[in-house]
Write a structure and sequence with these properties.
Length: 493
């Protein structure tokens, strides 16, 4: 029995051995009752550990191909002839897809985003988990009017292709929108993306090599962490406080690690809800300039301020093109439209477009035209005013219910955004609370997901107040408190 192991292959030795023996069995080189070499003999012959042969044989046994008996050894039990008589002549053996996955895809990332996206509005669960706008606040009448107008006058355009970097008229409207945020740019420095998540993906795939260091706020958006790590980057967390990222620790890590990028969410940060102070913003821009390290600024929540004065994005303070700016309409208008944008130097936009054309060619044309008209006809500002008022009410309902009913839960009242970030008493087991809460019909996101490798568990949780209805917030917090009381009483027994 001849087995050849490729020492430089990415396929594990035991899988190579198992597959070759399997092929011999299927091809009748080793018929039924054929006695295989002992584990020790085969390991010596192939110059591998005996445990490698043991594992290969175990998998072949699990698939019903071989068996072992004391005194007889390991032998083939697969009946080739019987199967040959019953299977069609064009029989093709099963393909083992799991053995073909790339190394990066073999990493087991938690499917927390998929679970949140699977939220069913008719489900009994009241969800505080997702970063999702309120469905009841969708501008239904405005969108209905816009679509009717588009179908009457521009039907050829809205179902046609679009430039890779985005529809020119939409880019012009985004340019005007950015002026309101204090950023003056030409349309050639704008790229339309399928939400800001695609923007992060394009930037990382264009710039990041394996083992490049990216400094992130800690905690931060889990989707960004997973994306960075999936491409082989080394993610290093920088602690934050009530004013944003700690600049002193950031500078220390820059000197120590020589990072490729700094990733930040300065406005109503996900998950903490903290807005970086204006002083920190200037300091961060200064650090970026001093060490020539670019910044990825993720700004999905910047226009959702409910208290205090509006602060400029980092891009508005950036005089030397060190900031790559990302934003989206997903949090303000609709998650389903999947329209966001990148602001970057023209040369960077051109490079990003080369990668984008290999993935999705361009963002959905109809969505781009609808958003463009929504902006052009003045609906956007009116919609912003409306949702700010409603989200403020929802935030206040949730914070009041938490203060009234959830003793021991510590949190800061966010001045904008989507989330309340709070800390449970240390005596509470977070996993137990999460399971009990799901059983009682309410969910949330445990805080460990917002740290690299889910490695930190300090009993923080993130609660979203924009998605559930007002009455659901009251019921949901009651269910959460009941869950807390139930596990507390069990631990006291």
């Amino acid at each position: 029995m001849r087995i050849n192991i490729k020492k430089n292959s990415n396929v594990a030795f035991y899988i190579q051995i198992k597959n070759q023996i399997k092929d011999m069995i299927y091809s009748r080189q080793t018929p039924k009752n054929y006695v295989l070499p002992s584990e020790r003999d085969l390991a010596k012959k192939l110059d591998v550990n005996r445990s490698t042969i043991v594992r290969a044989y175990q998998e072949l046994k699990a698939e019903g191909l071989i068996a072992s008996d004391i005194g007889r050894g390991t032998y083939v039990i697969y009946n080739n002839a019987a199967v040959e008589n019953t299977k069609p002549r064009n029989f093709v053996k099963s393909l083992f897809w799991h053995e073909m996955y790339s190394e990066s895809s073999k990493k087991n990332y938690d499917d927390i985003i998929s679970k949140i996206m699977n939220i069913d509005g008719n489900n009994r669960i009241i969800s505080f988990a997702g970063g999702i706008p309120a469905p009841e606040l969708f501008p239904r009448e405005e969108f209905e009017k816009i679509q009717i107008e588009l179908l009457k006058s521009k039907v050829e355009n809205i179902f046609s292709h679009s430039p890779v970097t985005g529809d020119k008229l939409l880019k012009k409207e985004i340019k005007h929108l950015m002026l309101n945020r204090g950023v003056r740019i030409p349309t050639k420095e704008v790229m339309v993306t399928s939400g800001s998540q695609q923007g992060i993906d394009l930037i990382v795939r264009t710039f990041i090599n394996v083992n490049d260091v990216i400094l992130i706020e800690e905690p931060t958006f889990f989707g960004a962490i997973q994306l960075f790590e999936s491409l082989g980057a080394k993610v290093v967390g920088v602690p934050t406080d009530e004013y944003g990222v700690r600049i002193d620790i950031l500078e220390y890590l820059i000197n120590k690690l020589n990072p490729k990028f700094i990733y930040t969410i300065p406005n109503f940060q996900n998950p903490t809800g903290v807005s970086m102070s204006i002083e920190r913003r200037y300091e961060l821009i200064g650090i970026s300039k001093k060490y020539s390290i670019p910044i990825i600024e993720d700004d999905p929540y910047g226009e959702l301020r409910y208290d205090g004065r509006q602060l400029p994005p980092l891009k508005a303070l950036d005089k030397h093109n060190y900031v790559l700016y990302l934003s989206t309409f997903s949090k303000v208008i609709s998650l389903g439209l999947r329209v966001g944008w990148i602001i970057a130097p023209e040369g960077v936009i051109n490079k990003l477009s080369m990668l984008k054309q290999l993935t999705d060619l361009h963002v959905n044309t109809l969505s781009q035209h609808i958003i463009c008209e929504f902006l052009k006809q003045g609906y956007y500002e009116k919609h912003l005013e409306r949702i700010r008022k409603q989200y403020l009410l929802k935030r206040d309902i949730m914070t009041n219910e938490l203060k009234r009913n959830f003793e021991g839960f510590k949190f800061e009242n966010p001045k904008g955004g989507f989330y309340i970030w709070g800390k449970l008493p240390n005596r509470v087991d977070l996993n137990t609370l999460f399971k009990k809460s799901i059983k009682n019909g309410v969910d949330f996101v445990p805080g460990n997901f917002f740290y690299k490798n889910n490695e930190k568990n300090d009993n923080f949780i993130r609660l979203n107040f924009t998605y559930p209805k007002k009455d659901e917030i009251i019921i949901g917090i009651k269910r959460l408190m009941d869950s807390f009381d139930e596990i507390k009483s069990i631990s006291n027994d």
